[in-house]
Write a structure and sequence with these properties.
Strand order of the largest sheet: 1-2-3-4-5-6-7-8
Order of helices and strands: HHHEEEEEHEEE
Distance between the termini: 31 Å
Oligomer: single chain
Strand content: 25-35%
Number of strands: 8
Length: 161
């Protein structure tokens, strides 16, 4: 994860240099993907890594807990799946932030492990999440940072729509 953050910082620095007169950045840096509703809705976003603010794994969100956590978006709403219950709500994009508009949830009772996953999801998907998009094409990566500093890395798989 530290490598991704360093790469993001380096890319941002080079991008800033590209805006200075007489200085240009490499084409790969200048062509960073844009985070928009069309891009978000073109993929299902599968959690591949979850770390707290200190870089430690968050066991409650790790893939393999009865199903992989994933996000699905349309123009104005998102769904979180992978636990016991489906969570859903509105969102808005503002600059480099994903502003969540109160997630609701279905109310099924399941195994304790899945109920704990639902609680872990609800605790992190609230308020404004810092959001960044890395790569593009077949496997873009969405990086979300929660208000508490947790970093969720999700890999995009095209929806085919």
């Amino acid at each position: 994860m530290k490598k991704i953050l360093i790469a993001c910082a380096f890319s941002a620095l080079l991008g800033a240099c590209a805006q200075m007169p007489g200085v240009s950045a490499p084409a790969a840096v200048a062509a960073q993907p844009i985070l928009d509703a069309a891009t978000l809705s073109a993929y299902h976003w599968y959690l591949v890594k979850a770390e707290d603010g200190r870089g430690r794994d968050i066991p409650a969100l790790q893939p393999g807990v009865e199903g992989v956590l994933y996000l699905a978006f349309d123009d104005q709403s998102m769904q979180v799946r992978g636990g016991c219950n489906q969570q859903f709500g509105g969102y808005a994009l503002q600059a480099d932030a994903l502003r969540l508009k109160g997630l609701a949830s279905t109310m099924k009772a399941c195994a304790p492990k899945l109920m704990a996953l639902d609680q872990a999801i609800a605790a992190r998907f609230k308020g404004d999440l810092a959001a960044g998009l890395l790569g593009g094409g077949q496997s873009p990566v969405l990086v979300l940072t929660t208000v508490d500093g947790d970093v969720l890395t999700l890999e995009g798989k095209a929806t085919g729509q």
